[in-house]
Amino acid sequence: MKKRVDILILLLLSLALAIGNTFAAPPVFDVDREFYPLYPSLIKYQKSAAEFTPPEVCADCHYKQYNEWTGSIHALAFTDPVYQGELNLAVQKVGHEISRQCEGCHSPAGVVTGEIKGPGNKGLSPMALAGVSCDICHSIVDTTHWQTPNHEPENGSFVIRPGVDTETGPELRKRGPFTPSEECGMGFHECEESSLHLQADLCAGCHQVYHYESHFPLEATYLEWKHGPYAQKTLLCQDCHMVDFDTFLRTASEFRKPERHEYRHYFNGANYLLYYLAAGAAKKADDEDLAANIMNKYDMAVARLKAAAELEISPVYRKGQLAEIKVRVKNIRAGHNLPTSLTNIRQMWLEITATDEQGNVIMSSGAINAEGHLPENARLFNSDGMGNDFHFAVDPWVITAFSRHDTIPPKGFKDVYYGVNAMETPVVKIDAKLRFRQADQKIAEKLLTNVPKDIDLEAVYGLTEVPALPVVNMVSKEVRFNARM
Ligand code: HEC
Ligand code: HEC
Ligand code: HEC
Ligand code: HEC
Ligand code: HEC
């Protein structure tokens, strides 16, 4: 009997200890709500009577930068219908608080001033609609990358301050890379020299997107870059994305920094789909100049994608007989993983066809079907998200880990092997394509059909239905191998 009581006491004791331990364990991600009043966005605002200025005003004196920036993905970051569709779903599923997280990066001014009240564009000021505009980047005074729950840049971890109060009233202060001249700002704004604008840290807080609660890195472009060869050689985001296409080619191919006078405000990446939609809207609004400007950015994005990768195809023989085809996909010019950012949504895949001497198909993989989907056996270089229940998930408020991550690191490669039966033919012809699109057809349809009611896709973009998403062939290659060695 005594023994039984002892065991019981022991059990109770260990139970108490276990409970005590869970209470005592320090949280992995500690959120300081006082330090981050706009949580789940980590943006911090130094408020004064000096207000934000919309880009059209900056354009009066900085037309060149304005013309480069307008129609860019940064200019479209808030009005982007794909974004608005996802935001609308997020608010429906999680509640209003999550929208602060999204808007902290897609329209920071709209969040810190409290102007944006929910999804949709209706009644918003030009500054809120302008997304990541001039007065966002040039008002960033600091970052809080080390105080964040992850101690890494995430979810808008920067400090924004468009100006200060002085004895004579509010004064605008714009921060840029140079030592200011006497006439800098021409009385409209003061100038402050900022070394942050010559660092990738300026981009980091927005190009590390973390789950709003569990702080899992959903998009990690900045850290992919930082842990790769370009960062080692101080080649920054700016050196590939704030230059024209030829200068980007030189940066990436020769590991050479652009000259001072070569910087531009294009922020051109890979999202040709959004340019395509925005150019359609500009045409509908009879703004031919803007439409042409945006189509130029579309061409740049397609060219950039085509310059990013290379394919190497080689035969694998067993006992003198062709048994497999090896395809090596190389990331030759992206400064981060290829693809990057929304890796669970973006699709980059191999489409391979092997034919015999008569042209009969003996193996094929990765052809899109009539509904716009990829077959099960397609080799994709992206990721699969999963939720807390370890099940497959797509939405960013559900994903708390990746079950698969097959993106290609900068200057790295991935090999794929395809079995072929070449017993009946003397030669095998291989037709290989590396293909890219922004999303699976079904996902694009889901987001675009969920845009808030005040955005009329037909009136604004001329869309009556979601068109088949355009696919870019990043690389195409044809080779022939003998079936016997
Ligand atoms: C830390 C900054 C940040 C936060 C927070 C953030 N985003 Fe984004 N978002 C980005 C960046 C950067 C991209 C561009 C990635 C790319 O081009 O691949 C992006 C792209 C997107 C896209 C793709 C747009 C397109 O046209 O393909 C959608 C949709 C989107 N975000 C929705 C959301 C929603 C909804 C939330 C909130 C739940 C959110 N984002 C929170 C930075 C952020
Ligand atoms: C995403 C952040 C970002 C946005 C948005 C942005 N800039 Fe800049 N801007 C920079 C960076 C970074 C530099 C420094 C580039 C370099 O190394 O020369 C810069 C440089 C400048 C300069 C110095 C001269 C030059 O062109 O290098 C001016 C003037 C300027 N920006 C004005 C503007 C205006 C006007 C807009 C809006 C139309 C704008 N910027 C939008 C980040 C931004
Ligand atoms: C009344 C004219 C005027 C307006 C309006 C104006 N600027 Fe300027 N700004 C100047 C002049 C002049 C300079 C110095 C010459 C130059 O760099 O182009 C300058 C310089 C700058 C610089 C470079 C600072 C440096 O030395 O690194 C930045 C950044 C900048 N402005 C941002 C802005 C932004 C953002 C806006 C809109 C909110 C804006 N400016 C509106 C006249 C103006
Ligand atoms: C050596 C050149 C280079 C550098 C440095 C570089 N990039 Fe890129 N970036 C590219 C190329 C090429 C692409 C197009 C292929 C791709 O999507 O990865 C790209 C694409 C992107 C995209 C679009 C992804 C998509 O799927 O739509 C974003 C966002 C981006 N880069 C942001 C950044 C940021 C932020 C940095 C710095 C942390 C950076 N890049 C550094 C070359 C570079
Ligand atoms: C305030 C947040 C913010 C800052 C700061 C910022 N970005 Fe972005 N950036 C975004 C968002 C949001 C998007 C995507 C918008 C969308 O797709 O709707 C984006 C898109 C881009 C794209 C286009 C990606 C594509 O798919 O084509 C490039 C390139 C890019 N950013 C580069 C930069 C660089 C370089 C810097 C630093 C000089 C920078 N960004 C700073 C928020 C930011």
What's the rounded overall pLDDT mean?
Answer: 94
Helical proportion?
25-40%
Give the biggest sheet.
5 strands, antiparallel
Q: How many DSSP H or I helices?
A: 18
Secondary structure category: alpha+beta
How many E strands? 19
Q: Which overall shape is indicated by the principal axes computed on the Cα atoms?
A: globular
Give the strand content: 15-25%
Give the cofactors and ligands.
Answer: heme C
Question: What's the number of domains?
Answer: 2
Radius of gyration: 26 Å
Quote the distance from N terminus to C terminus: 81 Å
Topology:
Blueprint: H1 2-24, E1 44-45, H2 55-59, H3 63-69, H4 73-76, H5 81-94, H6 97-106, H7 108-112, H8 126-129, H9 134-137, E2 140-143, E3 158-160, E4 163-166, E5 169-176, E6 190-193, H10 201-204, E7 208-210, E8 217-220, H11 221-226, H12 229-232, H13 237-241, H14 245-254, H15 272-284, H16 288-308, E9 309-318, E10 321-331, E11 347-355, E12 361-365, E13 379-380, E14 383-386, E15 392-393, E16 401-405, E17 413-419, E18 427-437, H17 441-448, H18 457-461, E19 472-482
Parallel strand pairs: 1-3, 5-6
Antiparallel strand pairs: 2-3, 4-5, 7-8, 9-10, 10-17, 11-12, 11-13, 11-18, 14-15, 14-16, 18-19
Helix pairs in contact: 5-6, 5-17, 15-16
One heme C binds at residues 53, 57-58, 60-62, 134-135, 138, 174, 176-178, 180-181, 183-186, 188-189, 191.
